[in-house]
């Protein structure tokens, strides 16, 4: 079941996407390393499962915490969320903070799951 997003939210996302680079799952699988894969979803989403090797910096705290997690502003960052909207918003903000190589994963976690790719669940 897909979410119905409000027109105002979609307008803000479209504006951010005009400044953000996006890549697909296929692109990610061929993407040169190193890069930092960042899950910007909410805590409960992260706990339900995430992409292998991802770190978690939820969209609500990413601006506050990213400089502790990734000090090098030239480091490549690939952000994902559930469907590619929140990650585009977060990527836009990180670019404004001076990060120079930020990407948003189009389709996000949903596209990853639909492709049948492996997931990781944190140890609790």
Question: What would you note in describing this structure?
Answer:
The protein is of the alpha/beta class. The protein has a single domain (22-114), classed as Oxidized Rhodanese, domain 1, CATH 3.40.250.10. It has helices at 7-17, 25-30, 43-48, 62-69, 86-96, 108-114; strands at 21-23, 36-39, 55-56, 77-80, 102-105. A five-stranded parallel beta sheet has the order 1-5-4-2-3. The model has no long low-confidence stretch (mean pLDDT 95).
How are the SSEs placed, and which strands pair?
Elements lengths: L6 H11 L3 E3 L1 H6 L5 E4 L3 H6 L6 E2 L5 H8 L7 E4 L5 H11 L5 E4 L2 H7 L10
Parallel strand pairs: 1-5, 2-3, 2-4, 4-5
Question: In a few lines, what is going on in this structure?
Answer:
The chain has 124 residues and is of the alpha/beta class. It contains six helices and five strands. Helix content is 40%, strand content 14%.
Strands of the widest sheet, in order across it, are 1-5-4-2-3
What distance lies between the first and last C-alpha atoms, to the nearest angstrom? 28 Å
- Tally of individual domains: 1
Structural class: alpha/beta
Mean pLDDT: 95
CATH topology: Oxidized Rhodanese, domain 1
Q: Order of SSEs, N→C?
A: HEHEHEHEHEH
Query: What's the level 1 CATH class?
Result: Alpha Beta
- Poorly predicted regions are none
Query: What fraction of the residues are assigned to beta strands by DSSP?
Result: 5-15%
Please give the radius of gyration in angstroms: 14 Å
Fourth-level CATH superfamily: Rhodanese-like domain
Number of helices: 6
Question: What general outline do the C-alpha atoms trace?
Answer: globular
Helix content: 25-40%
CATH architecture: 3-Layer(aba) Sandwich
Number of strands: 5
Summarize the biggest pleated sheet: 5 strands, parallel
Domain Rhodanese: 35-121
Organism: Rheinheimera mesophila
Protein name: Sulfurtransferase
Keywords: Transferase
């Amino acid at each position: 079941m897909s979410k119905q997003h409000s027109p105002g939210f979609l307008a803000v996302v479209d504006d951010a996407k005009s400044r953000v680079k996006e890549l697909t799952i296929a692109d990610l699988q061929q993407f040169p390393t190193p890069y930092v894969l960042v899950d910007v979803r909410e805590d409960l989403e992260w706990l339900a499962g995430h992409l292998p090797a991802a770190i978690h910096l939820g969209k609500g705290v990413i601006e506050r915490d990213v400089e502790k997690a990734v000090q090098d502003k030239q480091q490549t960052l690939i952000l994902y969320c559930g469907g590619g909207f929140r990650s585009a918003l977060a990527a836009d903000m990180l670019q404004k903070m001076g990060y120079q190589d930020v990407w948003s994963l189009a389709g996000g976690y949903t596209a990853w799951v639909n492709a049948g790719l492996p997931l990781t669940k944190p140890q609790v």
